[in-house]
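Write out the 3D structure for:
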Amino acid sequence: MSPSEPPTISEAISGDHKSLDEYADRIRSSTSLEDKIKWRNQLTWALARHAISEELTMYPAMEKHLGEEGLQLTNTDREQHQAVKEDLYKLQSLSPSSSKFSPLLDRLMTDLHEHIKHESEEDMPRLEEKLSREESQALARSFERTKMITPTRSHPSAPNRPYFENFAAMLAAPIDRFKDLLTTFPEKEELPKKHQSML
């Protein structure tokens, strides 16, 4: 991808994955509790939005273009997302000073990396093979736009299939965004360039 060319869906999702790893690393490397909390909040904000946006944009595209195989792949993806959402739900309100925090963060990232591996080795190559570059770029734009309206916290008991998930997300998003106003986050300059433009 050239700097001026829009990303494909694989490139957009891979970019998010790199940012999520960076946020987890920043939690681990921060020396103050205040900084750890800010980066925990950033990880929660980014991962919750990312997961729901995949479920609302990429998974329906996989089911449409890959048929039965796409349905099987997205069922696996949803199961993996559920494990991540459950861990994130616990992590998002747990103080980094708790003895449970680091093992939970490690488990979350292990589950997330298992999902990322499945996406990069199974989902993305199959989906990209069926899409033109322009269709993939359009899907990436939809993925990015959807992140602007999704909840910013984990809600593991919410439905994870289109239409039901859309409705649940629309109910949860305003409450989450209000909570964001009362939550500390890293300064804009501390974030990767990609995410600075989303604030």
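The first helix runs from residue 9 to 29.
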